[in-house]
Structure formats: structure tokens, C-alpha cells
Specification:
Distance between the termini: 34 Å
Radius of gyration: 19 Å
Largest sheet: none
Strand content: under 5%
Structural class: mainly alpha
Number of domains: 1
Oligomer: single chain
Number of strands: 0
Mean pLDDT: 83
Length: 102
């Protein structure tokens, strides 16, 4: 049987939020690179020396984007109430429970 979790202290909440925010920002690196690569290949400004099957490439692109969105949905949660933190990367308070995040 699981024991009830102890509530996090204000410092623990801020530290956990900082770690989650860092992971969100690091997630942007592959996403931006992926979209940049796709844009350059799509416009013909970048030549890829391998023959890419368009249908397979679209599926792989979609799966990578879906994985990034899924990870973001899982990661971008309030450490105190587990509510989704929204689209912004700089929230000062949780919009669900009001706890101070920074």
C-alpha cells in the first residue's frame, strides 16, 4: 500500500519547477532543429544526399512532433497540484492552485 505523499516545501516546489522549466527549454532544441531542417529541405535550399521517401518522412516527422508534445504535456505540470501550467514558459504562479513557482 502506498503511503501518502508529504506536501512539498516552497523551496522544493521552486527547485522542481526550475528543473521542469530547464527540460522544457532543452526540448526546444531538437524541435527547432527539426522544423528548420524540414523547412530547408522543403524549400529546396538544403540538398539531402540520401533518397527520402516522402510518406515515410512525414510519418517520422509526425511521430517525433507527437512525442515532443506528449513529453511536454507530461513534464509541464505544477509540482504542487500536478495541473498543466499552460503555454507560457515564465509562469510565476500556478494558475490552478496559486502556488509560487519562482
Amino acid at each position: 500500500m502506498d503511503s501518502p505523499q508529504m506536501p512539498l516545501s516552497a523551496d522544493q516546489i521552486k527547485a522542481e519547477f526550475a528543473a521542469r522549466r530547464k527540460r522544457q527549454l532543452l526540448l526546444l532544441i531538437p524541435v527547432v532543429l527539426l522544423f528548420g531542417f524540414a523547412a530547408l529541405v522543403g524549400t529546396g535550399k538544403l540538398h539531402v544526399p540520401v533518397d527520402l521517401n516522402l510518406a515515410t518522412t512525414k510519418v517520422v516527422f509526425f511521430l517525433i512532433v507527437a512525442a515532443c508534445v506528449g513529453y511536454s504535456w507530461f513534464n509541464w505540470r505544477c509540482p504542487a497540484c500536478k495541473g498543466y501550467l499552460g503555454r507560457g514558459i515564465e509562469p510565476r504562479h500556478c494558475r490552478n492552485c496559486g502556488v509560487e513557482l519562482r
